[in-house]
Amino acid sequence: MVGFFVVAVVVIVVLVIGFTKQPPTVDYSNAQSGQPVDVTLQTVGAYGSAPHPTWVSYLIKDPSTGQWVHTSYFQVPAHTRVNMTIIQYDSGSPLRNQQIGMVTGTAGKVALLNGKPFHVYNSNAGNGVGHTFSIPTLGINVPLVGNNANANLCSAAPCTEKSPHNVLKFSFTSPGSGSYPWQCFVPCGLGFLYGNGGPMQTNGYMAGFMKVVA
Amino acid sequence: MSVAAEGGAVSEGSGAPQGTDEPPRKEASHGWRLFAIWLVLSAIVDPLYYIFAGPHIPPGRMSSTAGGAVFDFNILIVLAIPVMIGVWVYMAYAIIQWRASKGGPEPEGGPLAANNFKIQTSWITITTVLVLFLAGFGTYELVQPEGAGGGQGPNPIWTPTSNTVLPIQVIGQQWKFTYRYPTFGGFETTQLVVPQGVSIAFHVTSLDVIHDFWAYQLGVKADANPNQDNVAFTTPYQLGSFVVRCDELCGIWHGAMYNNGAVVTKDQFEVWAQTTEKALAANTKLLPPFAYTYTPDANGADGGYYPDNVDPYSKVETYGATQPGSG
After folding, report:
1. Where are the domains of chain B?
2. Given an 8 Å threshold on Cβ–Cβ distance, is B251 in contact with A201?
């Protein structure tokens, strides 16, 4: 009886810890008041380390150390211009729904792909689209154009710019305080039903939160 | 029932305990008394509910289907109130009238408690009439044009009488809804805008798992199943915004799968639709031809969505093929 009780308590504790555990938050909110915030992310085709080395993932650059952090949580100040830079190291494919091939919700409704502005990307051409950066509640969507799958792509995070990559830049103004879920809308969880399992449903990989603080 | 029967028995016969010499004591007619109390209370509460609470029953009267839902709710509640009052009145009456007195004998049943023909007949008749009426009423309300606001499948039996029905396709995907307007070049957008006073045919489908399109204030709620064209009709009456939510647990971001729609005037809708069609033209020509259902690529990341008669494993170049049902 005592043994059963101990096991039950251990199971409950493990479950509570597991369910409440969150990826770390990279803090960009220490910028000077009124100044734009520069947020840098990268996407990799395979994280390369335990517990899920084959899963695609986002990483976020810590502004204080310059180190890449395996997380999808970042924090920005409210009502501030956020300049996003996403270095996309993964390959691409035609989109399941080309509707997410459009840039929406950003300043000027455009994004820069390796320095060139674009509003719509034809995912049926070229290397397709690998991922998106989307904050649905803010109407933000940016397709992250893929790299040539036959190139020697980076296979373990963090990737460096020596590997083939595309650089996406765009800006938006952060809203009021709150937590805003963001995600990739490309079903990129290979090996999962319709590609929407695994990393697509796991915070810290292809989904996370933008925390906005006053 | 045993106590009711007992009451009924007492009211019709001699109330004196058997085996005594006392003359029969005249008992009140409990049945008629209960009926009178029930009738008066029902006659008071039902109109009060209908007049004061009825107009505020959700989801409101923003559309024909929402108004229909409110009407249905009110009818059901107006019917339910007398039943509820009947139960409560009977319980209260029984507690007051037939409770055991201190030191007295326990109340007993008797042959009439189990075989009261009047009560049994009344009970069966009333409940049968009530249930049959509700079945008939519910069926009619479900199938009448724009009645339920729920998906009626790809070939609805009852359709709106209006000659002009605006088709809008609702596409569910993890984890958002997008909307295609086939009569405006088939553009696809995350905005749901509908014109006031025009019959709408929502064609609800999904690109992956099962979702559920729930336009709350419009009173429309239809499952979004992959490879299924689930049609739901409505006619918006009131201008304003409404909330669209997914009502089928569909993954980690199910809770974030919502957006706001808007009912605007016909003129405003025309302007919006034409402006949006123009603004999205570059992307619209990259979409697959409009079809009522699509087959998502089964390989996960590799591939787009296809009109439903195309091999899901084929290449995207098949987008250019003419598909049945294309707009």
Report:
1. 2-100+108-143, 165-298
2. yes
User: In residues, how long is chain B?
Assistant: 327
Answer yes or no: is pLDDT of B12 > 70. no
CATH superfamily of B165-298: Cupredoxins -  blue copper proteins (2.60.40.420)
Residue A157 buriedness (CB in 10 A; 0-12 / 13-18 / 19+)? buried
Q: Which amino acid is at A212?
A: V
User: Looking at the partner chain, which of A96, A139, A207 has a beta carbon nearest the beta carbon of B296?
Assistant: A96
Label residues B294-306 b or e (16+ Cβ within 10 Å = b). bbbbeebbbbbbb
Closest chain A CA to residue B208? A194
Q: If you ran DSSP here, which 8-state letter would residue A206 be given?
A: T
| Gap between the Cα atoms of B323 and A98, Å rounded | 18
Residue of A nearest to B259 (CA): A137
Which pLDDT does position A126 carry in this prediction? 83
Widest CA span in chain A: 68
Q: Which residue has the tokens 């729930």?
A: B214
Contact assignment for B256 to A181 by CB distance below 8 Å:
yes
A139 in contact with B at a CB cutoff of 8 Å?
Answer: yes
Q: Strand A73-77 relative to strand A207-213: parallel, antiparallel, unpaired?
A: parallel
Q: Which CATH number fits domain A23-198: 2.60.40, 2.130.10, 1.10.10, 2.40.128?
A: 2.60.40
Give the closest residue to B203 by CA, choosing from B165, B160, B151, B163: B151
Give the DSSP H/E element, type plus range, for residue A178: strand A178-183
At residue B219, does pLDDT exceed 80? yes
Is residue B171 over pLDDT 80?
yes
Question: Within an 8 Å CB–CB cutoff, is residue A180 touching chain B?
Answer: no
Domain locations in chain A as residue ranges: 23-198
Q: Does A207 touch chain B (CB under 8 A)?
A: yes
Nearest by CB to residue B251, choosing from A104, A196, A203, is: A196
> Which residue from B minimizes the CA distance to A101?
B283
Chain B residues in contact with A200 (beta carbon < 8 A): 174, 252
Is B240 within 8 Å of B218 (Cβ atoms)?
A: no
- Cβ-based contacts of A102 with chain B (< 8 Å): 280, 283
Residue B211: closest CA among B219, B195, B197, B222 = B222
The residues, any chain, with a CB within 8 Å of residue A8's CB and separated by 6 or more, are: none
Q: What is the mean pLDDT of residues A86-112?
A: 92
Q: If contacts are CB pairs under 8 Å, which of residues 20-79 in chain A contact chain B?
A: none
Secondary structure, 3-state, A28-61: CCCCCCCCCEEEEEEEECCCCCCCCCCCCEEEEE
Say if the ipTM goes beyond 0.90. Answer: no
